[in-house]
């Protein structure tokens, strides 16, 4: 139990008659790269939205590092170490890449409130920002505005912003959607490295089964708000219920 | 190179302003003071509008609070202008904190309408509390006491003396706003304008930063109102009227929302245009409207924004 980072207890959410989460119970262990999969409308995005504070659940509890965060606002969850990236690149369009990364860095270093010091002259912040830009391969474009980036680069930046918040647990919503093979390799390599380091525990929502099965140590299958499969990729592949509702359609 | 140019321009501007203070007629002094006071109002306002992306229609309330603050302070407490100005700023900031607390829960049109509603409430309070504010007559005949700093006593009774106090606060405001724009706080505000969801997911409480921007801009409005009162020596409730709230909006739009110097350039154009047009016609609003239309349609990013882009393009060609 010591190794558990996030626990979900009896989590439910319904939009009118549409049940997107029904008595969900699971826990995520530190350092175990987990994927959440499921057919369209299975409740994957809603689950992430609830866990990160975007939507309140109807009932249930979310425990993060032993602390009940069910009612905590988004920004406090992020400061506690729970962050996410978005399906659609969600960046600061008119700000430079440096500034894009600097905002979460300032938040982490608790410098965001200072209003008389210069950001550009803060060596510590610059070093940290450059480190992250280098990690996602965008260091050379640090002065370019984010709106001028290609779609794939914007996705890389998006992941960079999420990493800059120094999360313990990071949800990536379709991290490789719309990327070219080079960018995809880079981002997957980053995820593997960081995960192996043990700094960040990743939870990935993906449609691409190659990514899911090559990367994950654990796969959770959602279907209509229920968990219908949970285990190693092999176990999930072998699960008859999963094959029936989901894998049978896409993976042969 | 680029930043050197900026310092040269600022130094030149300050030199010109000092020159005006020593050598100009009273009329030019008066116009220059009006421009500087409007600049302080608009620069502070633009922290909220251009930087944070929140359009407020209620900032005249804070301007008026600053003005009434000085007037009441010098009538009942102390005539020291610096004490009065501090009281004015503090009162405006405090009012901004209360009003902002409710307004920052919303954005865009809802935010704008809320600020408008609060602004009108402040206006009618000032109109109706006759015993304190003098009702529709306002407060008039406020004298400028001397600025006494220990041994030193500086008289500001004459406009040519008061001018340098205005210039001092104008320069101080420029410095402060510039520092805010370079600071982490300023960057966070820009982040909120660009993408408030992402800012929240960067671990920052967006509402609190919006409120902080609201209070800071309210404090600058209070400073402008305080100086405006000392300049005119009277204030009426119309200082809080919503039509007065439009001034910093127009000024920021004309000069350039996303620029530091936009509100200053906008203020110069605004005050001079008005002065110029009013000599020929009483319907200055009509002609001003036409000119404003031309500036907004013709200069994308305001006068400063479009000029900078032009200079960049030209320097690339050559």
TrEMBL record, chain A:
Cellular-component GO terms for this entry: plasma membrane
Q: Where are the transmembrane segments?
A: none
Entry keyword annotation includes Isomerase:
no
GO molecular function term, any single one: ATP binding
The species is: Desulfomonile tiedjei
Superkingdom field: Bacteria
Q: Which Pfam families match?
A: ABC_tran (PF00005), BCA_ABC_TP_C (PF12399)
Domain ABC transporter: residue ranges = 6-249
Leader sequence residues: none
What UniProt keywords are attached to this protein's entry? Answer: ATP-binding, Nucleotide-binding, Transport
Q: What is this protein called?
A: ABC transporter ATP-binding protein
From TrEMBL, chain B:
Asked if the record carries the keyword Manganese, the reply is no
Cellular localisation: Cell membrane
Q: List, alphabetically, the Pfam families matched.
A: BPD_transp_2
Q: Where are the transmembrane segments?
A: 7-23, 29-48, 60-77, 83-102, 109-129, 162-181, 211-231, 251-273, 285-303
Topology of the protein relative to the lipid bilayer: Multi-pass membrane protein
Coiled coil ranges (UniProt) are: none
This chain's protein is named: Branched-chain amino acid ABC transporter permease
* A GO CC term assigned to this protein in UniProt: plasma membrane
Which key words are in the record? Cell membrane, Membrane, Transmembrane, Transmembrane helix
Recall the GO molecular function terms of this protein's record. branched-chain amino acid transmembrane transporter activity
Record-linked InterPro entries? ABC_transp_permease, LivM-like
Where does the protein principally reside? Answer: membrane
**This protein's record includes keyword Cell membrane:** yes
């Amino acid at each position: 139990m010591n190794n558990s980072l996030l626990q979900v207890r009896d989590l439910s959410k319904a939009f009118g008659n549409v049940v997107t989460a029904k008595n969900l119970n699971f826990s995520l262990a530190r350092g175990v790269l987990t994927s959440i999969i499921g057919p369209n409308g299975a409740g994957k995005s809603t689950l992430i939205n609830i866990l990160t504070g975007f939507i309140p659940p109807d009932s249930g509890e979310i425990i993060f590092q032993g602390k009940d965060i069910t009612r905590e606002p988004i920004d406090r969850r992020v400061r506690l170490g729970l962050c996410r990236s978005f399906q659609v690149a969600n960046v600061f369009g008119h700000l430079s890449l440096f500034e894009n990364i600097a905002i979460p860095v300032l938040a982490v270093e608790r410098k965001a409130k200072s209003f008389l010091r210069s950001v550009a002259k803060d060596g510590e912040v610059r070093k940290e920002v450059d480190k992250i830009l280098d990690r996602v391969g965008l260091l050379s474009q640090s002065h370019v505005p984010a709106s001028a980036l290609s779609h794939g680069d914007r996705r890389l930046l998006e992941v960079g912003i999420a990493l800059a918040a120094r999360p313990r647990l990071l949800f990536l919503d379709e991290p490789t959607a719309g990327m070219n093979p080079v960018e995809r390799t880079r981002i997957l390599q980053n995820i593997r490295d960081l995960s192996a380091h043990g700094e960040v525990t990743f939870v990935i929502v993906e449609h691409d089964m190659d990514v899911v099965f090559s990367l994950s140590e654990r796969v959770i299958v959602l279907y209509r708000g229920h968990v219908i499969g949970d285990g190693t990729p092999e176990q999930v592949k072998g699960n008859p219920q999963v094959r029936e509702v989901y894998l049978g359609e896409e993976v042969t | 190179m680029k930043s050197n140019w900026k310092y040269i321009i600022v130094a030149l501007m300050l030199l010109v302003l000092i020159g005006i203070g020593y050598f100009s007629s009273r009329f030019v002094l008066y116009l220059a003071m009006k421009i500087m006071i409007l600049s302080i109002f608009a620069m502070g306002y633009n922290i909220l509008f251009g930087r944070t992306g929140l359009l407020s229609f209620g900032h005249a309330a804070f301007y008026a609070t600053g003005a009434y603050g000085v007037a009441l302070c010098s009538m009942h407490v102390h005539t020291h202008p610096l004490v009065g100005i501090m009281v004015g700023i503090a009162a405006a900031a405090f009012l901004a904190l209360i009003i902002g607390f409710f307004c920052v829960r919303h954005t865009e049109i809802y935010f704008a309408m809320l600020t408008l509603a609060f602004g009108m409430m402040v206006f009618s309070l000032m109109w109706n509390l006759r015993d304190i504010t003098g009702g529709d007559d306002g407060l008039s005949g406020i004298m400028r006491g001397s600025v006494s700093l220990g041994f030193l006593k500086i008289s500001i009774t004459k406009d040519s003396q008061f001018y340098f106090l205005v210039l001092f606060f104008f320069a101080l405001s420029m410095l402060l706003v510039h520092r805010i724009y370079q600071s982490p706080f300023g960057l966070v505000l820009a982040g909120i304008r660009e993408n408030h969801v992402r800012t929240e997911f960067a671990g920052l409480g967006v509402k609190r930063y919006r409120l902080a921007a609201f209070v800071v801009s309210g404090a600058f409005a209070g400073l402008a109102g305080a100086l405006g009162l000392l300049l005119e020596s009277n204030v009426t409730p119309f200082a809080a009227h919503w039509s007065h709230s439009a001034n910093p909006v127009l000024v920021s739009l004309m000069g350039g929302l996303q620029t530091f110097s936009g509100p200053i350039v906008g203020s110069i154009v605004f005050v001079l245009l008005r002065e110029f047009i009013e000599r020929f016609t009483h319907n200055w609003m009509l002609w001003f409207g036409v000119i404003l239309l031309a500036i907004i349609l013709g200069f994308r990013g305001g006068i400063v924004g479009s000029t900078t882009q032009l200079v960049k393009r030209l320097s690339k060609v050559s």
